[in-house]
Amino acid sequence: VMPNGPLQRYQALKRDPSQQTSKGQIEDLAERYKLDKPWPLNYLTWLFDPNDTTQFNGKFEQMPKGIDIAIGDFHMKGSGILTGDLGRSDSSARGVYVAQLLGERWFSTALLVGLSLLLAVAVSLPLGIILATRRHSTLDHAATFASFAGLSVPSFVLGLILIIFLAVVPRTWHVQFGWDWLPYMPAGSISTGGQEENWANRVYHLVLPVTTLAIPQIAGLSRYVRFSMLEVLGQDYIRTAWAKGLPMRRVVFKHAFRNALIPVITAVGLALPGLASAAIVVENVFAYPGMGQLFYRALGGCLATIQVMDTDPPPCPALGFPPDYPMALTMTLILVIIVAFSNVLADVLYAVSDPRVNYSAKAEA
Questions:
Q1: DSSP calls for 16-67
Q2: Residue 14 burial by Cβ neighbours in a 10 Å radius (0-12, 13-18, 19+)
Q3: What is the pLDDT, as a whole number, of residue 153?
Q4: What pTM was estimated for this model as a whole?
Q5: Which in 105, 123, 130, 215 has the greatest CB count within 10 A?
Q6: Are 141 and 315 contacting, i.e. CB atoms less than 8 angstroms apart?
């Protein structure tokens, strides 16, 4: 139902025979997107269609498709999203299986998001604890200002700022003034020329993208940890621990921090979907070859340098590329799965961090 989407094209082709469209194009749209069925049934057949069991390969040979399971008298045959059949790309890489395109890029995005989350948690937890124990200090005020700045700057702007001041400007001074001692970061993605499998090279090119993703999360999580710790540090049992003369480290980490973990876990669980969605923008800013680039391209977007745009024909049409609906649907589904997984993971961590949380006891009650 998107503007100029498959449904509108299908209806226009059926309604206007003057376009001299072959019957095969209408049938192809109907078969690919199940458009000859009403939308509730359309959705169910997208999930699983027992009648769609064959497809044509590159040589126009008919091949089996989906699953064919027979266990005793039980026999199930068909294809659809639930069988792992994600379809073929419409425009990003026409005719190539979506699963194949994702298989080539999923690890790059997982590495980017995973390192960003690890960095955000590793920095924000101790920072939030320090700010809570030094409330209203100069450090607390400075960190508050920095966190508001980190939350206010959009990720694509932050990425461009880091590229300018940590890559472009130092590189310019390095070349023009011969400042060999001045280090600079790569402004783009993993370099070509056989260095893609070099882990040192990969980590080197991940520094700026990971930092761009992690800074907003550090700003938000550190404030969350600070507020949670302040609430716990004001409790009576903490004052009793101080009155007993317990060491500061024991009071803060054993008594206060563990009881402040529940709301912090919620914030960390929400950080994972936030990082996954922000990676779509950051991967395009840094030309990072991950799934975010595929999603942007599937929605019709295109980014290219001025030098590349001078080629004939240019790689980016003036009106953008036609959307790649199988890829866009699959990427949206992946984002939904990440959100669901994050909530389940947070529930598990609740029980790990707090023995009072017992889901089996609640179920029995």
A1: -GGG---HHHHHHHHHHH-TTS-HHHHHHHHH-BTT--EEE-TTS-EEE-SE
A2: middle
A3: 92
A4: 0.83
A5: 215
A6: no
